Amino acid sequence: MNRLHRLIATLGIAAVALPAAASAAPWQSIAARQSRIEQRIDQGVRSGALTRPEATRLRQDLRQLARREDQYRRSNGLSGWERQDLNRRFDALSARVRVEKHDRRHRR
Q1: DSSP string, 45-85
Q2: pTM for this structure?
Q3: 30-34-40 Cα angle (round to 5)
Q4: Which key words tag this protein in UniProt (predicted)?
């Protein structure tokens, strides 16, 4: 009986903890994500973590992503698939900003 109570308690804790952990990353609107990436690029240039060519390339990619968002919005708003596509692309761009900032190529 004691084992059964422990098992039920463990499953109950897991059922409560897992959804909370999955939602730990706050949702950001597309505009907020775009703004945050721009800020990170600017900060990287100011600190010297990004070279000017790296920053230029990242900004071009960000502008291209903004154009894609505009195309999606012009066609009757964003569908679920289009929102997922944009989120995936923003995730990839955000990861590239992080990699470029920490690649040990510094402006001299």
Answers
A1: HHHTSS-HHHHHHHHHHHHHHHHHHHHHHHTTS--HHHHHH
A2: 0.70
A3: 145
A4: Signal
